[in-house]
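Encode chain A's predicted structure.
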Amino acid sequence: MASIRRKEIPDQEIQSFWEWFETIAADLGRDLENQAILEELDRRVSELGDVSWEVGPGRKEENALVITPDGSKEQLATTQRIVARAPMIPCWEFHWARPARTWSLQFSIDSDQGGRTQVDARSWRYVLFRFPDQTFDVVLEQSNLKEASESDRYTAAVVLLDGILGELKRLELIGGIEAVAALPEDQATKASPIESLSMHLESLVAKP
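Encoded structure for chain A:
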């Protein structure tokens, strides 16, 4: 998405964004694929800085708007500031990073070859590499994406990690991400099923 880089967004611009969003929230809530509204939403979010957005079902409310740093730790302060000024709107919740999902590990991504690619991550495995600062590198084995491009495999890996951990936790804990079609033999013997990743990380971080 197009975006404008700024050091700090004036409060009035954030306020204007939310005033506009209040006027379209009901219509967007009834149709989350309303292209005219989504195009205007994209334009208005791009004016707030180097951030992105997502809409979809909420965790508690019917709908959710995420103003996301899109994987950039440097933009977390910006998204926090934007969402902190969000008004209370019926049937909507707001997030400043992508929340963890309750899901089936099946999703789709925009392919760099064009169109959408369906991804089923239920069979994926991973290996973690721990560093002294309590961050980790992760290698993801995506055995059913052997024909996918390197870019698409990486995109699918990030979507999966954000879905399992939440974007904030992923940014805090995960440094390097490597997506491979098959793990090297020395790593394959240490691999774990993807469903255990969140609890595995929590157990490692809890250790002194």
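The chain has two domains: 11-95, 106-206.
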